[in-house]
Amino acid sequence: MSANTYLDYSIILPFINNDNNYYFSRQCTEDQEAINSAPTGLDIHKFFKISPPLNNDIHDPFTDNDAQTTKDGKVLDLATGSGSYGAAWSDTSAGNYIDIRKDQTVSAWLYFGAATNNELLNGQGMALVLQNDPRGYNAVGAGYQGLGVYGYDKATTSYYYFTEGSPTVATPDYIASTAVKNSMALEFDSQINDALSSRDEAPIQLNYESGVIFPGIGTYYYTLNGYDTKDTANKFPIPSTYPIILNSELVVDTDILQ
Predict the structure, then answer these.
(1) Which tens digit of pLDDT belongs to each residue from 86-135?
(2) What is the C-alpha end-to-end distance of the chain, expressed in Å?
């Protein structure tokens, strides 16, 4: 944490993953009902800024900000639909900041999704974040398990004409470089991302970059999706649900997942 005692704060919601059209239709209906029943809040645009992320790595996939306001600007809708995520930072020029030298109270009405224990309808969660990141309003971490504040645990495999191989995982320094800097987060984490649990959380493929000259050659990019993994013996084999090439050649170092 830097010496500055006046901190931006934000509530951040990462991706909502909805791959089933029936569930997505139901979610849209119930999400709108939740918005309609939400209590009247602050004028979001008067006290918050919604800005695009500023990332230094061209392979960092978290480059958008899907946050928007609804209900006459009094409700902040941070993510809507499959693969969306968003963030809004307090506008310090409007006097909206946390002075950590003083007692503060922040109250909010939070909505996490339309169902209980159903990942097709619910997002990963939210985080209330205090930060002094040099990027200011443009600071956003990884989506999915990263809750918009933690770093991107990038994993890659090479693709060569129907064969996936040569897996790599990001270093702790890289993951830290993609997080919100000088920050402290209070999680409202609605899903467990544990690579070693009975749920066998698998990595999530984020994108694929093909070669320009030879499209059959390229690189797959993943998030390992295991930040909630409990480290009891330093290293574990990757679970059986991970892509076969990752399962056969990689070991998860859960020191970086704590």
Answers:
(1) 899 999 999 998 888 888 888 888 888 776 556 656 778 888 999 999 99
(2) 19
pLDDT in tens, 178-216: 999 999 898 888 887 877 766 656 788 888 888 777 778
DSSP-derived 3-state class of residue 154: strand
Q: CB-based burial of residue 213 (10 Å sphere; 0-12 exposed, 13-18 middle, 19+ buried)?
A: exposed
Residue 145 per-residue DSSP state: G
Dump the DSSP string for the chain. Answer: --S--EEEEEEEEEEE----HHHHHHHHHHHHHHHHHSPP---HHHHEE------S-TT--------EEETTTTEEE---SBTEEEEEEE-GGGT--EETTS----------BSSSS-TTTBBSEEEEEEE--TTGGG----SGGGTTTS---EEEEEEESS-EEEEEE--HHHHHHTSPSSEEEEEEE-S---TTSTT-PPPEEEEEEE-SS-TTEEEEEEE---TT---SSSEEEPPTTS-HHHHHH-EEEGGGG-
Provide Rg for the chain, Cα atoms.
19
DSSP state of 114: S
Which of 122, 109, 110 minimizes the C-alpha distance to 192?
122
Structure tokens at 246: 């990752």
pTM, entire model: 0.76
Do residues 81 and 16 make contact, with C-beta atoms less than 8 angstroms apart?
yes
pLDDT for 137: 93
